[in-house]
Amino acid sequence: MTESPNTTTTTISTKRSAPSTVRSTKNSSIVFDNVTKTYPGQSTHALDSLSLEVASGELVCLVGPSGGGKTTALQLVNRLVDLTSGEIRIGDTDIKALSPIELRRTIGYAIQQSGLFPHCTVAENIAIVPTILKWDRKRIEERTKELLELVGLTPIETWLGRYPGQLSGGQQQRVGIARALAADPPVMLMDEPFGALDPITRAAVQDEFLEIHRAVGKTTLFVTHDIDEAIKMADRIAILKPGGLLAQYDTPAAVLARPADDFVAEFLGAERGLKRLALTTVAEVLIDSQARRNGSSTRSESGANSRTEASPAADWPEVAATMTLREALSVVSAAHAQGARVMDAGNHLGDVTLHELVCPPSDELGRQSEGAGV
What we know:
Helices cover about 35% and strands about 20% of the residues. By secondary structure, it is α/β, with parallel strands linked by helices. The strands form 3 sheets. The chain has a 6-stranded mixed beta sheet with strand order 6-7-8-3-9-10, with helices on both faces. Strands 2-1-4-5 form a 4-stranded antiparallel beta sheet, covered by helices on one side. Strands 11-12-13 form a 3-stranded mixed beta sheet. α5 packs across α7 and α7 packs parallel to α8.
């Protein structure tokens, strides 16, 4: 996304994230093997026998209430704190086999409020790790420009010499992501990176980061307290209970459809059914509804279904094909309509009814659960 240097973007992408399609050819998985952390003087564990694997190229969200050990788990990976027992591996390497400094140079780290150095320019902030790694000046300059393009801060020359205090919150967070990616690390750790942003900017930056993640395929461990953010962002979600116990580890669809226990169900909240609607796009339901109406998923040459412009659907509100069912339902409800006209780049693809939005075919949501891990 190209952003003006003097304004904060208010454009929210309606594109639903999908599991990352780009995977590193190198094993960059993160494995927690029976990991326990107990801080001195504490009678309870911060993490208790945590075992899970983040596959190479996967984005996993750690979520749960305060005291669940989310941030502790993240800090154990880059040895900001040391584990009490167990083992953590990145790829095939036990992290204790590396010095903390050597380890951290292979890990990108993004935190809330960006963590940028206020006295350094955008270019200098991004160049910190490459400079430490003794990259030559030309390589650093090329990488900095490449990353500014990637995070949508263009024209590039506009941003290179600016200081963090001259940027909006969303712009600072984009630079923070660029800095975390600067040395092309195989692993990214993100500790509530978007938590300080206003809702509109936060949604936009989330969408942009998902696009970046699909492009670069980094193994990413992402801490958030917001279950809606986890549902939107994650390939899989790890829900932690107070005391650092793993309550459930599965895909967003599987967690919403089959909470492991009462704690998980309560944490997900009363709107669990509505949250499931955020996992499916209008386009998916449209194709299915056309197949059922016409006996085939093949659209007509015009792209529209058999309803005519004279039908009641002509007065229905328009929704983008890339919207989630939850977003489309909000539009239809606000218009007091019985359905919506599905549009893509100005083209009318067809119509979906209110019933189809609220009660999509079970296989649409069910297929999201396929391949779920425990």
